[in-house]
Amino acid sequence: MGKSISCKDAGKTCGWSATAGTEDELLKITLEHVKEHHTELTINSELSKTIKTLMKDT
Ligand SMILES: [Zn+2]
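^ thats the input. predicted complex w/ zinc ion below
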């Protein structure tokens, strides 16, 4: 069982989604995506928390 996330669930008009084995791994992947494609977002602990709430079990 792993974790998945998609930008659509965050209300973004972005078709990106990802899955990973662990929450930490998925968070890392997601932050890489945010850095490149959602430059309006500030990467901080608050954002990390939000990302984790958007994760779903696969
Ligand atoms: Zn995105």
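Helices lie at 23-37, 45-54.
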